[in-house]
Amino acid sequence: MAIPSTSTATPLLSINGLQVRYGSTLATRAIDLDVAAGEVVALIGSNGAGKSSTLKAVMGLVRSVEGRIAFDGKQILGHTPSEIVRMGIGLSPEGRRVFPMLSVAENLRMGGFTQSRVDGAERMEQMFEAFPRLRERAGQRASSLSGGEQQMLAIGRALMARPRLFLLDEPSLGLAPIIVERIGEILLQFQAREGLAVVLAEQNAAWAMQVARRAVILELGRCVADAACTELRRDPRVQAAYLGL
């Protein structure tokens, strides 16, 4: 289930020399990453590799950041998360982090805060079409949903703002394979229909490299490989370290 990439002269997202610190701890070390419009890139690595820190830096969720992050040619470091969402970047965070006491529909409306009432209602209908289970649960509190349903809701909430770039952090974590496969299908649908670019941060390398055409491998906060997934799957070191072969 590979998603074709769409290359452009100027990357939609360009990260150069990214360093993220938490106190005295250096989480990423001079990461460079370009993502083209319409491209799906898998960001692969174990816990502590720097995947989440990279996504959080793009979204403006961490303070101590050095380097350069440009979106559509414009520097975005220093902007607030809400400003970054308005620019066209969405995030589905690790652990889902839905609003537990709000209903499914209310969660989706929160994600669509950049949309007019009419556009928001149209977009919500698109989310219900993509995730029929959310329509069935529209009036229920998010806390009552299963893990898979909460992940669908987190993805739908982020897509409500109609992003051009979608960041997903460990979407397969703790989910049944059939749900994980469905998430991949939804990404494919939105990429094809809207030209959505995706950065998919995942420990499940085998699945992530089925969804993406290109993968970047992080180890200890550094990029150690950046190549087509077909090439990386043939690499004995990648097979042993990430694919269980």
Q: Find the count of extended strands (DSSP E, 2+ residues).
A: 10
How far apart are the first and last residues' alpha carbons, in Å?
A: 20 Å
Shape: globular
Provide the low-confidence segments as ranges: 1-8
SSE string, helix = H, strand = E?
EEEHEEHEHHHHEHEHEEHH
CATH homologous superfamily caption of one domain: P-loop containing nucleotide triphosphate hydrolases
Percentage of residues in strands: 25-35%
The CATH topology annotation of one domain reads as Rossmann fold
- Quaternary state reads single chain
Radius of gyration using CA atoms only: 17 Å
Helical content class: 25-40%
Mean pLDDT: 90
Keywords:
245 residues; alpha/beta; Rossmann fold; four-stranded antiparallel sheet; 10 strands; 38% helix; disordered N terminus
